[in-house]
Amino acid sequence: MKRKNAWLMPLICMVTLMFGQGCGVYMAFTQPDPVSYEWLNPGQAQRGTVMSVLGTPVESISTEDGGRVDTYRFYEGTSTGWSAGRAMLHMMADLFTLGLWEIVATPTEFAIRGDKITAQAVFDSKDVLRKFTVIKREEKPLEKIHEEEW
Length: 150
What we know:
The protein is of the alpha+beta class.
């Protein structure tokens, strides 16, 4: 006896597999690129150059001498090829394990994600870097949030 809706269950499974990819895939694809700030030498780097590397500052304070102090927050990242490779691995493993791979993938991505760095850049009145300092390094900040919930 043939069921009328025999196509429904395979369709539901296919849609779930296509759109049910978990956090591991997303986290790997959206991993930030590595940030190289070691070359930011005082007296040489311009503010625009610093912003092109570190992004828009989260805070910018003008100083009395016409300069400014910018505060940046960013994650240490990994290379794009490595991130894409991990994402494809997670996606294929999700398909073969019907999503169970996420039990491994998500914690792995939390562990691989770089530290969250807060840095401060001091510029003179001509927007030339005078001083660059890493003022805070949070190791695995997302894991700390989950620990605090418990």
